[in-house]
Amino acid sequence: MRRRWRELVGERLPRAARTRDWPVHEDHCFARILLDATMERPWREVVEPPAWANTPPDRLAHAIALGEAVLEGTADLHALNRLSLKLRGKLRS
Q1: Which helix (DSSP H) or strand (DSSP E) does residue 89 occupy?
Q2: Distance set, CA 57 to CA 39, 61, 66 (Å)
Q3: Would you list the DSSP string of 3-60?
Q4: CA–CA separation, 84 vs 93, rounded Å?
Q5: For helices 57-72 and 27-39, what crossing angle results, to 10°?
Q6: Distances 87 to 45, 48, 90 between C-alpha atoms, Å
Q7: What mean pLDDT value characterizes the chain?
Q8: Cis peptide before 50, with omega less than 30 degrees from 0?
Q9: CA-to-CA distance for 30 and 7, rounded, in angstroms?
Q10: pLDDT 10s digits, 3-33
Q11: What residues contact 63, with CB distance under 8 A and at least 6 apart?
Q12: Which of 6, 26, 40, 93 has the most beta carbons within 10 angstroms of its beta carbon?
């Protein structure tokens, strides 16, 4: 599962971002967005870095499923990014 996570955020999402109108393109941004949404708070408040090694398996599976949904177009990366920024106090309501 950890290999799937690293492939998803390190390769597949950044590659897909080249041809999509997404708000982010960097691997660490995808990780932030998916993990924050999964944890419902900034992920570093819940898990020690590195996230790929320390996230509980059930939470990592949820984040992977969310990333797959982003790739399939059934989850809105723009909305997830706004949620992440709001959770971090970088976006006003």
Answers
A1: none
A2: 13, 6, 14
A3: HHHHHIIIIIHHHHHTTS--S--SHHHHHHHHHHHHHTS-GGGTSPSPHHHHS-HHHH
A4: 12
A5: 120
A6: 11, 18, 8
A7: 97
A8: yes
A9: 12
A10: 999 999 999 999 999 999 999 999 999 999 9
A11: 5, 34, 35, 37, 38, 55
A12: 6
Tokens 């499923």 sit on residue: 65
User: Token digits for 47?
Assistant: 């898990």
Residue keyed to tokens 């790929």: 52
In the block, residue with structure tokens 């967005």: 33
Which tokens is 27 given? 């691997």
- The encoded tokens of residue 12 equal 């597949």
Residue with tokens 């090694």: 53
